[in-house]
Structure formats: structure tokens, C-alpha cells
Design goal:
There is one protein chain. This protein folds into 2 domains: 101 residues; 110 residues, no CATH class. It is 54% helix and 13% strand. Helix 1 runs antiparallel to helix 4. The protein is rod-shaped. It starts with a helix and ends with a helix. The mean pLDDT is 83.
Amino acid sequence: MGMSASQARYLCLTARKNNVEFQIQQLTQQKLMLANLLDDEATLWSDGMNIQHLYYSSDGSGGSVTSDLPRLTYSIVTSTGDMGMGLKVRDSYGREVVPELPEVLPEGKTVADYAVEPYCNQADYFENNIKTGNWSIQSYDEQGNLVDMSIEGSPFIYQGVDSADYAVANAEYDRKVESLERIDKKFDTQIQQLSTEQKAIETEMDSVKKVIDKNIEETFKTFG
């Protein structure tokens, strides 16, 4: 191989080596991004495993198995009877929360005394408003006055994690992690292939450089 051909080959190999190194850097960066995504999924999984719901314990004994208890709902809080607490729900403005206005307003009451919430019977909607303080549950004191009731202080309300949330969080986490790990393994394979190619290029570059050095040496001898 002549001097010019050797130099051209060396420049070509240098360009290929730089391109391979750039691809490895890009893949390595994507692996780091994947690692961050895995950390995010672990956080989401942890959050999903610790979602606390409100449950109703009719006998006031609470419980450790939430599947044995119904979710606390507006109907349970306001209904009377064996499965009801017979209490009131009011919003932060002091208005009584109702799914719809009474057909006949009680004496002394006006429309302004009510907050109409059509979705108040949905457990998640009800729970969110109670937890955020938008609504409060009110019980009667010894004088018959309505006062705010503490969720933590009620023996009939139990806070716990729903076993169904565990299943959902686990399934979603396993699915996403499996997908991310497949991508990560693909990146590892590509990096390994590129690293092998990089070593081969470096070996060939060393060989071509020796040819160039030899050509230079022989050229100097000729003119020496």
C-alpha cells in the first residue's frame, strides 16, 4: 500500500472510530436515562403501594383487612340505620353537601344553605374532598349541635391500603420495568458490538500507521 493510499485509509479509519465512539456515547447516555426512568417507576410503585383509603367499620372495631370493609361514602355517612352513620357533610362555606336539592326545603332553609354535588356518592370523589378539607363530616354533640368530626378520632372510620391497589401497582410496575429492561439489554448488546468494532478499527489503525511509518522511514533513506 502506497503512502497516499495508507494515509487515506488511516483518515477513513479515524472517521469510523470517531463515529463508533459517538454512537457508544449516545447509547451510554440513553442507558443513564433508562436508569432514571427505572428510579421514577420505583417511586410510582412505592406511591401506589401506600395509597390510603377511608373505610367504614360498622361495629367500630376498625380492621386490618380492608377487603372486609366497605369504602366510606357519602351515603354511609348521611344514611341512618344499621349501615349508616346518620351524620351531615358540609363544605368549607358551611353549606350542607347534598347530591340534589330536597323536593321541599326544610323550614328556615334556602337554596343558599346547600352545596349540590351530583358526584358526592362516588367513593373517590367523596374521599378526596374529605381529605383535602373541602368537606367535613359533622356529628352532633351532647347539646345537639353539629360539630366537625375528626376522621382520626372516629372508631367507625378506618384508614388503610386497599389490597387491590397492591395488585394494580405491582402489575403496572412489573410491566414497565420488564419493558425498560428489554430496552436496556438491547443497548448493552449494541454497545458490545460497537466496542468490538472499535477495537477492530484501532487494531487496523495501528497496522496502517506502521505501514505509514515504514513508508516514511524508507522515503528518508532514499533521500538520505
